[in-house]
Amino acid sequence: MAVAALTVSCSSDYLDTAPSQSVNPNAAYATTENARNTLNGIAKTMTTQYAYYGQGFAGENAVIRLYENLPSQNYNYNRYASGWAPIHNHTFHTNSTRIYDSYAWAYYYSIIVNANALIEGIDKSEGPDADKKFIKASAMTFRAYAYEKLAHYYCFRWQDSNNGAAKGLPLRLDTSNGDLPASTLAETYQQIYKDCDDAIKLFTESGKTRSISECWIPDLNTAHAVYARAALTRQDYATALTQAKLAEDKRALMKADAYAAGFYKPNDEWILGSYGNESEQNWYWAFGVQDACNGYYATNQDTGAGTIGHELISRIPNNDARKQLFITEDKFSNIDIHNDDQVNQTYGILGMRNDNVWEQADSIVKAHQLPGLSAAYAAGYMYLDGQMKFWTTAQPGVCYVPFIRASEMVLIEAEANYFLGNTADAQAALVKLNATTGRNPNYTCTKTGQDLFNEIKDYREVELWGEGFGWSDYKRWNIPIVRHSFAQGGNAHVAVAKTINPDEFNQWTWVVPSAEIDYNSKLKDE
User: What are phi and psi for residue 336, nearest 5 degrees?
Assistant: First the structure.
C-alpha cells in the first residue's frame, strides 16, 4: 500500500506523481516537488479502490457509508436495508474476521504508513525550507486525522476508558514494521495532540498555504480542525473550543444559496475533502454512485439515494435552507404519509400507486434541480425524506466530497460551550450557524439545559447529514440509536427499526482485526 500511494499516476489537474513503473522510494523525496506529489499520493488513498475488499471499499467513501451513515439513527437506505441489516444494527462489531471489521483499520493505517515515510524523508529533499515545512506539516496532519478516526472505531468512549487508561492504538510513528503493543487511549490522544501542535508550528513557520480548490491537501486550518475533533471526543472541551475557533479562520461559512447549490465541489468553507474531477474517475466505487441524487443508482435503479430520519427533519422549520434539500411532507399540497398507496410503508417510495403523489414528488425534485447537472432521480423512484444534497458532475458518480467543513467547527463551538456551562455562547454559536448564514434568517435560541443540548444535537445532525458523523456522534454522546418504522412514526425499514443501547456490541467498539493480531504478536494477549 505504501508503494501504491507513492506511485499513483494522476492528471496534471491533480498534481502529477511518479509514473506507476517507478518504485524507487528515494525518488519520492529527492526534491520538494517530488515530495509534494507524494503528499498528493497520500490524498489519493482516500479515494482509491482497495481491490482486496471488493466493490465500494474506496477510502473515505467506505468509511462514511459503512461505519457512519448506515449504522446511524438518521440515515436510511431502505431498499437494501434488509440485506444490509447487520451493518445498520452493529452485529459485525465483534467479528474479527469480517472485512467490515478490518477495512477501516487497514485503510487508516495505510495513510499512517505513508505519512510516516514522508515525515522521515522530507528533510533530505532538495528544495526550499518553507516547502519542506509545509509538506511535513501536511503529512503530520494526515497522520493525526487517521489516528483520530481509528479511535472512534476501535477504542472505547473516553468516558468508558477510566480517564484514558483503556487500550488505545499501536502508535506507529516511523517506517519500522515490527511488533508493537497498543498504547493507552490517553497516550493515543496525546500523540494526536502532538502531531497537531507540531503541524501547526511548521505550517506557521512555512508561511505557505494551499488554494481553496486544493481541498485534498491539509493546511493550517485542517490541523486546527483535527485537533478540535480529537479534543471534543476526548471531552477536553476547552481545547476543542479554542481549536475550533482557530480552524474557522478565513473559512467563511456558506450562505443559504451556496448550501442549496449542492455538495459536489469545494468552496471556501471546505477545510478538507476529496479530489473529484472527471479526469480521475473512480467509476462504480465513487461516493456519488450510491449517495448522489443524480448518481448511477438514483438514475438507473429503484434505490433512491438515502433518506434522512423523518422525526429529525420534521423538527426543523420548513423555511430552513437545509430542509429544502429533502423531499419532506410539508412540500406536498396533500399527502398522507401513512397511506400505503401514497407512501410505500416498507420502503418509503412515493406514489407507487398514486399518480397525484408521484407527480407532486416529481415537481418537488425538478424545482430543486441544479442547472448544468444531470436530472435527479431520473429512474423515477423518489422516497419520502429523500435527499437532494449530494450531486455528481458526471456519471457514474463523479464529485468532490467534504471531510471537514467550517460549519462543523461552529457546531463544535456550540457543543463545547454547552459542556463548559457557557450557555449564552452555545446559543450564539447556533445563531451564527443558522441565522447569520441565512440558513434560517429567523432563527433564535433561548433554550437551556437538556433542551439546548437537543437543539445542538438536531442541528449538528441536519447540517452534517450524510457526511460521515451520524454514528460516532451518538457513540461519544453515549446515547442510544432509536429507529422507528413507518408504523411507529418514523421512516426506517422494519429490519433496522431497532433500539441499540450504548452498552451493547462491545460498547460500540470494533474489535482489533484478527489479521492484525496474526501480524502483530504484541496484540495477542491484550
Answer: -115, 105
DSSP 324-358: GGB--GGGSSS--TT-TTTB-TTT-BB-TT-HHHH
Place of cell 461505519: 67
Taking every pair of Cα atoms in the chain, the longest distance, rounded to a whole number of angstroms, is 69
- Per-residue pLDDT tens for 337-392? 999 999 999 999 999 999 999 999 999 999 999 999 999 999 999 999 999 999 99
Q: What is the pLDDT of residues 238-266, one digit of tens each?
A: 999 999 999 999 999 999 999 999 999 99
Contact 267, 258 (CB under 8 A): yes
What are the cell numbers at 251? 473559512
Q: 481-482 and 402-405: which strand pairing?
A: unpaired
Give the burial string for 75-106 (b: 16+ CB within 10 Å, else e).
Answer: bbbbbbbeebbbbbbbbbbebbebbbbbbbbb
Whole-model pTM? Answer: 0.94
Where does residue 179 fall: left (phi above 0), alpha (psi -120 to 50 degrees), or beta otherwise?
A: beta
Q: Are 87 and 70 in contact (CB under 8 A)?
A: yes
